[in-house]
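Worked example 3. Consider a protein that binds EPZ.
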Amino acid sequence: MDKILIEGQKPLSGSVMISGAKNAVLPIMTAALMAEGKSALTRVPDLRDTRTMIRLMKIVGATCSFKDGRLEINASTVNNPEAPYDLVKTMRASFYVLGPLLARFGVVKVSLPGGCAWGPRPVDFHLKGLEKLGAKITLESGYIIAEAKRLKGADISFEFPSVGATGNIAMAAVTAEGTTIIENAAREPEIVQLCEYLNAMGGCIGGIGTTRLTIDGVDELHPADIDVIPDRIETGTFLIAGALSGEITLNGVNPQHLDAVLLKLKEAGCNVSTTSNSITIAPAETIQAVDMTTAVYPGFPTDLQAQWVALMSLAKGSSMITDTVYHDRFSHVPELNRFGANIKVDNNTAFVRGVDELVGAPVMSTDIRASASLIVAGLAAKGITEVSRVYHIDRGYEQIEEKFRSLGANIWRENPNA
Ligand code: EPZ
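Given these inputs, the predicted complex is written out as structure tokens:
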């Protein structure tokens, strides 16, 4: 398995182009399955997860071609509404095919996603929502089987504004008979773009970007093209690296998607300036310890919690970081402590006492964002850091070591098995 090695404390400078958003393109790919014909998606990041989703597109019968960020999906040949366990277990976003394939074929078989590095991550909101739309749901040897001749619009209210459940139900409802109301819908930019894409396909969704979506069912959809939004989590990851290691500019971004993060970085003493499509960050003389609590959009994203903990481990003073979205998403903490950080976890809060220096060490990735926090820490640590199991980071970051190297980092990949 590949390792990424870093010789830390090399000052970063310059600028880098951010990639398209993984968590926007994955549901948009499954939405494209709903219409016969060819859709073209641009600014698609070349990641393990997008490659996994392309494999799933082909398993259900679509044809795909992917080159230089442009992904063409022809869904005319889709004929196998089934997502197998050995694929779903590697990427829970495969569950996004549930709504689209049920809507198009009236039946779909999708493996229940397993847990993940930090917890169970249930899908009950997805299933209850589909039942409300009239689907019959059965569980057979770890597979969900959903059936419905034609889905019927309904009033659905989520007890938590789930990103995935909002996406799945919106896709299922867009060709249902009648109107669906989703109360307490997710407002993440990735879901906003999914809804915009469904409307571009001929859907009729109102309230996009609010917590109340009104979906008037249409009879059929047609293919549509779309340019994927920039990845706000990759952007935030690089901003936090800049806060620790040097003044950098991120291009091709949407600063409005990161209001909560930019505010916190300023509170920590960083100098942040923005244009309509770029953000420049300059590190603080001394990073101030700043408490942070994650929240659904537009709050501080849980997907940047691990990276924020890494930043606070070198702050002056103590800070509390609470994750209200995933209460047990702290598998990065024991690894950060191997650098000499001083972090304790109690329930869903990390208590961080800032230290003067981190020292490079061999550490292990456990999930996409934990891996990112280890790289951010390694860039700021003295000496050599070795991050193993980097397939996790490759799931969600396109050419991460090339991008950091272009900013002046001494970072390289080794394949010990080569
Ligand atoms: C999406 O996951 C993202 N993944 C995650 O990013 C992100 O961390 C998460 O949203 C929260 O923002 C993709 O978009 C592919 P949720 P999702 O449903 O949709 C509970 C990354 O690193 N819940 O909003 O699975 C759940 O347990 C990944 O890119 C239920 O209880 O997240 C959690 O506590 C990691 N029942 C909360 O809701 C359900 O049916 C939020 O989950 C669904 C969710």
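Take a moment to read the result before moving on. The chain has two domains: 3-19+230-414, 22-227. Residues 232-245 form the longest helix (14 residues).
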